[in-house]
Amino acid sequence: MVTVKHKKFVSQFSMMGTLISLTLFEKNEKAVFDIYDYLQKMDDLFSANRPDSKLAEINRNAGIQPVKVSNECFSLISDAIRYSKKYSDSFNVLIGPLVKTWKIGFGGQNVPSQFEIIRDLKLVHPSRVVLDPVKQTVYLKDKGMQLDLGAIAKGYFADQIIKQLKEHDIDTGIINLGGNVQVLGNNPLSKDGYWGIGIRDSRFEDNQSAAIVHTKAKTFVTSGIKERYFKIGKKVYHHILSPQTGYPEKSDAIQVTIITDNSELAEVLSTVCFFRGTHRGKQLIDRLLNVEAIFINQKGQLITTKGLKSLGKGVYFYE
């Protein structure tokens, strides 16, 4: 009897400040090139650090005039503003001025003056964004306002890539956009079709897993304070900035992983739950259908939502 083993075809490329990985279980170079081209196009549109991006054009025209955008650009920004209004105490894509002032992870990072914080906090209100669905324009009403879609964009891209894979008649694959893992179909390497997805423990540099979740196809999005930070003495300043105070948010969580079907939603909820902390964050997720979460708190303890069944230390099952 001959046993046929499934081959893995892994493509990797650096883009958007991270290493992007696409794993397929059948050779399909056209799909890989199409996804690469798609992500390159999205980087051209949405990069906050490229002066020629559409996002940069919108920001440059703050307080001046509306900017006409593509369907895709309008859709993502509309979603981002809607979530920013719904979770205004935590998730906010108008936080661009604070991000640029702190510069955490971008070189030249520093603790801003109180004057700079107060100045920037005046520019982070989602209600000051005008979206015209007829003319398909985006207008930031106050000069100095800046959209920063870093907290939602990769989720939107991952959801679109899943659609593209299906259009190529690919029914199994793994997309890793750096902190955002999206799985399609059943695992051809396991008898039951379940995937074993490792949740990286950001406290350590060797990529060891804090937990492993056995599940059917889901998206896994992780946010944590160890991704970008700097120290002054013993004081740590991380990159998750509060739109309420202008400073890095104080939370008993150091890392939050959201597990669900929609990657864009998972991106939003990972930020919201970090702000709410392990107790209130768990309460929020436990009220939502088809969404689970794994928190790591300051003591290194794992806290999970009720839909994750423990199979042993650090191993969970989610159906």
Task: Describe the protein.
With 319 residues, the chain is of the alpha+beta class. The protein has helices spanning 29-46, 54-60, 71-86, 96-102, 114-121, 153-167, 263-286; strands at residues 9-15, 18-24, 67-68, 129-132, 137-140, 173-176, 180-184, 195-200, 209-215, 219-224, 229-232, 235-238, 253-260, 292-297, 302-304, 309-312, 315-318. Strands 1-2-6-7-10-13-14-15 form an eight-stranded antiparallel beta sheet, with helices on one face. β14 (292-297) and β15 (302-304) form a beta hairpin. α1 (29-46) packs antiparallel against α6 and α6 packs across α7 (263-286). It is globular and about 60 Å long. The two termini are 33 Å apart. The relative contact order is 0.12. The model has no long low-confidence stretch (mean pLDDT 93).
Features:
17 strands; alpha+beta; 4-stranded mixed sheet; 27% strand; 319 residues; 8-stranded antiparallel sheet
Distance between the termini: 33 Å
Count of alpha and pi helical runs: 7
Q: What Rg, in angstroms, do the CA atoms define?
A: 20 Å
Number of strands: 17
Tell me the quaternary state.
single chain
Largest sheet: 8 strands, antiparallel
Task: Present the secondary structure layout.
Blueprint: E1 9-15, E2 18-24, H1 29-46, H2 54-60, E3 67-68, H3 71-86, H4 96-102, H5 114-121, E4 129-132, E5 137-140, H6 153-167, E6 173-176, E7 180-184, E8 195-200, E9 209-215, E10 219-224, E11 229-232, E12 235-238, E13 253-260, H7 263-286, E14 292-297, E15 302-304, E16 309-312, E17 315-318
Helix pairs in contact: 1-6, 6-7
